[in-house]
Design a protein that fits this description.
Blueprint (H helix, E strand, L loop, with lengths): L2 H22 L5 E6 L2 E5 L10 H17 L5 E11 L5 E6 L1
Antiparallel strand pairs: 1-2, 1-3, 3-4
Length: about 100
Amino acid sequence: MAHQDLDTLLNVLLELAKQQLIKYDSFHPIAAQMESGKPRLVTVHSGDENPVADALIQEFNAIFALASHRNKIDSAGISYDVKITTPDLSKSDAIQT
């Protein structure tokens, strides 16, 4: 796998996460994978309007494991919203990828 694929995957995830933070002040976990050199977003629908982030991440990991086992993907990633403490001890959103 080339570094370019990883850069592309990271850029897709970070850009979408930034857009969601700007528009909604938070976001549910976002997943993407590289297939034949092209990024593809991965979605799951839990039926819940506000799904638990850990449950979505587990579902994404299961999807990635199956796709990897079948040699369908080159790489995969997940971005999710986290809170960090700033130097002035206030809380701020951050993107974990």
